[in-house]
Amino acid sequence: MANAGSRVSIEGETMRYAEYNSQSKIRSETEIDKRLGGTLIAVGLGVAAAGFAGRYAFQLWKPLGQVLSQTAKKMPTSTFSSHYYKGGFDQKMTKREASLILGISPTSTKSKVRDAHRRIMVLNHPDKGGSPYMAAKINEAKDLLDKDQRR
């Protein structure tokens, strides 16, 4: 049926099969281009809106940040670090400092000292990434409290 010489009539015109191009295919490509263009415009407007909203938020945040920093300065520092010891180590370790390092009472029993030492050394051991200096101080604190207590 379909040979190169046969003719097809479309809307009153006659064309050969080789010259025939579907008009629906061309329309679908233009529709895709229009939809793509609309999508790109919508994305661009969304990005612009997000930029303006961010700029507005930063402008509002600046005075709010100043108020927050002033409020934080007015608060006493003991509220944030009430249970941490401030300051470095003494030259000669005292019983008070040793108990602060181990986190126990100065009058704790030998078993409590041993348990506290083990718990802290697991967290601060040099083989596990801890500081050798801190490990030495923890051991010194344990030795001092063990020496003072013969229970």
Automatic annotation (TrEMBL):
The keyword Amino-acid biosynthesis does not apply. The keyword Mitochondrion applies. GO terms for molecular function: ATPase activator activity. The chain crosses the membrane at residues 36-58. Its main location: mitochondrion. InterPro entries: DnaJ_domain, J_dom_sf. One of its GO terms (cellular component) is PAM complex, Tim23 associated import motor. Residues 97-151 form the J domain. Keywords: Membrane, Mitochondrion, Mitochondrion inner membrane, Protein transport, Translocation, Transmembrane, Transmembrane helix, Transport. It is a single-pass membrane protein. PROSITE patterns: DNAJ_2. It is found in: Mitochondrion inner membrane. One of its GO terms (biological process) is protein import into mitochondrial matrix. This is DnaJ (Hsp40) homolog, subfamily C, member 15.
